Amino acid sequence: MIRPTGTRSRRRARGQALVEFALALPLIVLAVLGLLDLGRGIFAYNTMSQSARQANRSAIVDQDTDRVKAVAVANAATLGLAPANVTVCFKTSNTTLRDCSNPTADNCPASSRVVGCLAIVRVQMAYAPLTPVISVFWSSISVSSTSAMPIEYVCPFGTQTTCP
Q: Number of folded domains in the chain?
């Protein structure tokens, strides 16, 4: 009995498709996992930005740095943010500095703090990608967000235990 030639070529085509799928699957999985890592990174950055803004909103009416750090940590609970990752400083209103890297320059100390001084909150942490191939090249990526706003109310230290 003679077989039609179409059957043999269909079997070969099925085998060819399996080999092509086996070659393409790792690239597809890597692309999907890379997109998931990108989404996690954007989520981490947005959460840190929101945390810095909320902490800064607290700092413009209550200048207690421990409470400001607690607000930042509470707003980034999903990231595992620690108070050590939050920097709070106060600068004079005419400063050009927008970070806390130089705490002595343009400093606005508690004794001379007035409405208009800048409250600056910086939140930073290391983001670690989950995708194995990406984590080989970038084991951790430093992500930070800074928020600066003028003080609206000077909390009277020593007269109250909490500020409004």
A: 1
